[in-house]
Amino acid sequence: MTVLDPIKPTILATRLIPNVERAFAAKLGLRDDQRSLALVTCDIDDSLYAALDEATKMAEVEVVYARSFYAGSAHASGPLSGEIIGILAGPSAAEARAGLMACVDYAREKAWFYSADDAGDLAFFAHPISRTGSYLSKAAEVPQGTPMAYLIAPPLEATYALDIALKSADVEMKVWFPPPSETNFSGGYLVGSQSAVVAACNAFRDAVLEVAAQPLEV
Fold it and tell me: Which residue in 84, 175, 163, 183 sits closest to 129, CA to CA?
């Protein structure tokens, strides 16, 4: 592996529940019209969060549960647990399946981390989203369709790089993930125009690469 090689997520397990039991549905906070569920686990949490949001744009589904596991995929509870579980709810099995397929495709084809060093030990996520779906819009308290820079890195790198990203483009931080997250990373959601979001992602990437190349400044 070399610098800027992609680190692609692996979808570990998927299941459909065509007609969820209604007492269980109540525990999940489902509406009466949300009859079907799609379940998915993945070994990279932020990749799946972005992919779950994409699903809400491609099918009549909502993200009703998504949670990272403590300490990350290296300490997963089982071989199919990974780093995160996500649950999509829809009015029918067909919609749930369509949302799941969109989620899986996006994770595999677009929502990637990248290596910041030749060993592949230092990874970051600088992912531009041209328009948010219902999930990330709610998380960031912005209208659906808002361009977003989804930025994640290890704690020091993320803190340094977020500051540079905010100074390098006309963007606003809507969410900050203070270190440590459940998986011991940090980051944030920045919003602005599409061009500003891309510029922020590029600035964040360059700042993380700078730290990786020269960790000790003093």
Answer: 175
